[in-house]
């Protein structure tokens, strides 16, 4: 029945500024009106809606105002440089500084590599890729670099 997530929505304070920001992330506009814009994440499969609205004043919480974009593991290695080249600041997350990101999230039995940043309105954005699915091994939050070191030692 359910095949995936088709859309997610975020509030923004200035639609034109937000359009520029998301275009800078190489996203393609699918639809635009006076108060909303939709960007393809995967054309015909999923999109992100931005709405110019007062709800942008709601304080951030992980359950709202957060979107995670899936990327390939190969791209995660260069994600920090890619964001820096676009003038986007990495956000400290889970107690790991920017220099220790991308970080690895230990959500047993899954593990994901992730890097966090904000859009101009403080909406939380994340680039994420799965590393391990359905395998028990707890390690806490560590850097992707440390993840590679530990897994090389197990090989």
Describe this structure in words.
The chain has three helices and nine strands. The chain is of the alpha+beta class. The protein has two domains: 1-58, 2,3-Dihydroxybiphenyl 1,2-Dioxygenase, domain 1 (Roll); 60-155, Signal recognition particle alu RNA binding heterodimer, srp9/1, CATH 3.30.720.110. The longest helix is centred in the middle third of the chain and has 13 residues, at 73-85.
SSE blueprint:
Blueprint: E1 7-12, H1 15-24, E2 28-32, E3 36-42, E4 46-52, E5 66-70, H2 73-85, E6 103-107, E7 110-118, E8 124-132, E9 142-143, H3 144-154
Brief overview, please?
The protein has 155 residues and is an alpha+beta fold.
Key phrases:
single chain; about 160 residues; alpha+beta; 2,3-Dihydroxybiphenyl 1,2-Dioxygenase, domain 1; Signal recognition particle alu RNA binding heterodimer, srp9/1; five-stranded mixed β-sheet; four-stranded mixed β-sheet; 9 strands; about 35% strand; globular
Q: Residue share in helices?
A: 10-25%
Our count of domains comes out at 2
> Per the principal axes of the C-alpha atoms, what is the gross shape?
globular
> Architecture of the largest domain, CATH level 2?
2-Layer Sandwich
Strand content: 35-45%
- Detail the poorly predicted runs: none
Radius of gyration: 17 Å
Strand order of the largest sheet: 5-8-7-6-9
Counting DSSP H or I runs of 4 or more residues, the number of helices is: 3
User: Cα distance, first to last residue?
Assistant: 39 Å
Count of beta strands:
9
Structural class by helix and strand composition:
alpha+beta
Mean pLDDT: 88
* Largest pleated sheet: 5 strands, mixed
CATH topology of the largest domain: Signal recognition particle alu RNA binding heterodimer, srp9/1
In N-to-C order, the SSE pattern is EHEEEEHEEEEH
For this entry, what is the oligomeric state of its chains? single chain
Name of the top-level CATH class of the largest domain: Alpha Beta
